[in-house]
């Protein structure tokens, strides 16, 4: 069954949340886990694509968007994929959800990471996602950072 981890950041907004997602993806890849970063839409996918090149000096995390992976990586060797709305292909390791809603395909992943930071509205939608997973019996963990 899928394990769901909520990472509660003590401060910061969307930029802190995005950088933390990059670090989490890097850690997962270091442990041999494929990673899919699910965003709210095309603008956020593009922003995460850029950030994965620059979030930390000296770091590069091999990644592609779903669209690019379909064309240039049909074997699925790229460790990190980015997308919004569409199914993430054969990914089944870690899902990092950057959207305000629970993706319909979340249960095919062994782990889901929900990153919470920012204002009261963001925290409210995070609580709704927490209840969604909890009410369906998923293993839940909360990390206050």
Structure described in brief:
By secondary structure, this protein is α/β, with parallel strands linked by helices.
List the helices and strands and how they pair.
Layout: E1 3-8, H1 14-30, E2 35-38, H2 42-54, E3 63-65, H3 66-72, E4 80-83, E5 94-97, E6 111-116, H4 120-135, E7 139-144
Parallel strand pairs: 1-6, 1-7, 2-4, 2-5, 3-4, 5-6
What fraction strand? 15-25%
- The geometry reads as globular
Q: How many β strands by DSSP? A: 7
Q: Which structural class is indicated by helix and strand composition?
A: alpha/beta
Radius of gyration, rounded?
A: 14 Å
Succession of helices and strands: EHEHEHEEEHE
Average of pLDDT? 91
The unreliable regions are none
Q: Classify the helix fraction into a percent range.
A: 25-40%
Sequence of strands across the biggest β-sheet:
3-4-2-5-6-1-7
Spatial gap, N to C terminus: 25 Å
Largest sheet report: 7 strands, parallel
Number of helices: 4
Detailed description of the structure:
The chain is of the alpha/beta class and about 140 residues long. It is about 35% helix and about 25% strand. The chain has four helices and seven strands; from the N terminus they run βαβαβαβββαβ. The chain has a seven-stranded parallel β-sheet with strand order 3-4-2-5-6-1-7, with helices on both faces. It starts with a strand and ends with a strand. The mean pLDDT is about 90.
Provide keyphrases for this structure:
145 residues, globular
């Amino acid at each position: 069954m899928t394990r769901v981890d909520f990472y509660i950041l003590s401060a910061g907004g969307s930029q802190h949340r995005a950088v933390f997602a990059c670090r989490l993806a890097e850690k997962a890849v270091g442990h041999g886990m494929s990673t899919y970063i699910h965003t709210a839409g095309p603008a956020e996918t593009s922003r995460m694509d850029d950030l994965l090149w620059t979030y930390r000096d000296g770091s590069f995390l091999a990644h592609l968007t779903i669209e690019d992976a379909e064309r240039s990586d049909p074997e699925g060797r790229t460790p990190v994929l980015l997308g919004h709305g569409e199914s993430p292909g054969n990914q089944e390791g870690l899902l990092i959800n950057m959207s305000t809603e629970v993706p319909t395909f979340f249960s095919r992943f062994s782990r889901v990471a929900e990153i919470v930071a920012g204002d009261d509205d963001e925290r409210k939608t995070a609580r709704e996602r927490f209840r969604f997973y909890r009410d369906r019996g998923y293993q839940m963990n909360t990390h206050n950072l």
